[in-house]
User: Which sequence fits this backbone?
């Protein structure tokens, strides 16, 4: 039975190896040795797969032009899971990438009924201000709104000529009651990914889209469409990298609509305390048992926070892992340490975010 990846956000994929085999995603590990100072998410195998990343890496190493494309759907609050992509963008920006940041306000309207005015406000105050505070220089990114970009909408229409309804239905599962904005939207998404390669945006060049594996169907469609239009546009097939999704604190998928599953970038220290204290761990029923048999970090949501966010030093992370497995540390103490580190990080971040808000608001007024 094939594994279905749902780009609209249903399930957390469990078997990444199987997904990679089924969809032809290459293991990222093989490229690590060639990457100077790889991102910590690469080193820690959080970024586990890729398609054609070698050509982006080649451009990066030769100091040639390459682009990075990502989108934000302004529909809720940012949590630490969203931070994964921004960390990667900042890393690429330091390596000379043209960063394209799409505000997916057409998607927010189509999928969630968010008005364009609300999208604009959320994009500035909730997303772009946070991006700037997380180390991405938004002033040096190509930020645009789907609803304002004639180039993207025009390209979507041109490209849709070679995509038929059966193909879209097979990928997205459309049915009779699907509304037309939902059916057409994936073509906007394809145009988002390919438009940096139009002549007026710098022409064909390697482009990478860093995504969670649930977004792979969009990427496969974009690559197929790029191949069909290579003649005429000269598109270089877009590359992609795949990261694991940060699992929710309670054991289910991290989600903005379930506050107990996620640490939001705006959470107070009391909220952080409560969420981490209630988090699902890989600990034993009693402290005595844990000291004797050790814990299971790979099942633990608190450990995931250390991996993704709280412990940038690899050596310290490995020490923590060993201490957990040997029973040298128990969950209560480990959670207290996580609470402290998270509260410290968010205190600094929230002050930076406040300072970045004016820049973000100004930016959304002038971008295309
Ligand atoms: Fe998780 Fe820490 Fe408990 Fe180990 S000791 S299971 S890492 S909370």
Assistant:
């Amino acid at each position: 039975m094939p594994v279905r990846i749902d780009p609209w956000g249903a399930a957390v994929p469990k078997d990444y190896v199987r997904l990679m085999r089924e969809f032809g995603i290459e293991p990222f590990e093989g490229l690590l040795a060639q990457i100077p100072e790889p991102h910590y998410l690469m080193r820690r195998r959080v970024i586990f797969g890729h398609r054609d990343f070698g050509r982006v890496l080649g451009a990066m190493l030769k100091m040639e032009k390459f682009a990075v494309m990502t989108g934000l759907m302004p529909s809720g609050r940012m949590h630490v899971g969203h931070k994964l992509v921004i960390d990667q963008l900042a890393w690429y920006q330091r390596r000379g990438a043209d960063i394209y940041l799409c505000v997916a306000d057409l998607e927010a309207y189509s999928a969630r009924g968010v008005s364009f005015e609300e999208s604009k406000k959320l994009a500035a105050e909730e997303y772009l201000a946070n991006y700037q505070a997380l180390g991405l220089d938004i002033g040096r990114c190509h930020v645009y709104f789907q609803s304002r970009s004639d180039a993207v909408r025009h390209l979507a229409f041109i490209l849709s000529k070679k995509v038929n309804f059966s193909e879209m239905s097979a990928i997205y599962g459309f049915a009779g009651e699907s509304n037309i904005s939902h059916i057409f939207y994936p073509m906007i998404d394809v145009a988002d990914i390919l438009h940096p390669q139009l002549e007026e945006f710098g022409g064909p060049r390697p482009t990478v889209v860093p995504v969670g594996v649930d977004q792979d169907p969009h990427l496969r469609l974009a690559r197929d469409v790029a191949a069909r239009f290579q003649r005429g546009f000269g598109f270089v097939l877009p590359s992609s990298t795949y990261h694991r999704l940060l699992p929710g604190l309670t054991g289910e998928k991290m989600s903005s609509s379930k506050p107990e599953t996620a640490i939001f970038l705006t959470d107070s220290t009391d909220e952080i305390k409560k969420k981490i204290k209630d988090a699902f761990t890989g600990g034993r029923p009693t402290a005595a048992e844990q000291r004797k048999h050790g814990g299971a970090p790979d099942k633990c949501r608190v450990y995931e926070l250390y991996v993704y966010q709280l412990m940038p030093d690899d050596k310290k992370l490995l020490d923590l892992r060993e201490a957990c497995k040997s029973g040298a540390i128990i969950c209560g103490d480990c959670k207290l340490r996580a609470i402290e580190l998270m509260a410290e990080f968010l205190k600094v971040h929230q002050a930076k975010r406040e300072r970045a808000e004016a820049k973000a608001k100004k930016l959304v007024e002038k971008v295309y």
Remarks:
- Residues 331-366 form the longest helix (36 residues).
- Residues 1-13 have pLDDT under 50 and may be disordered.
- Strands lie at 26-27, 47-51, 67-72, 98-103, 142-145, 207-212, 239-243.
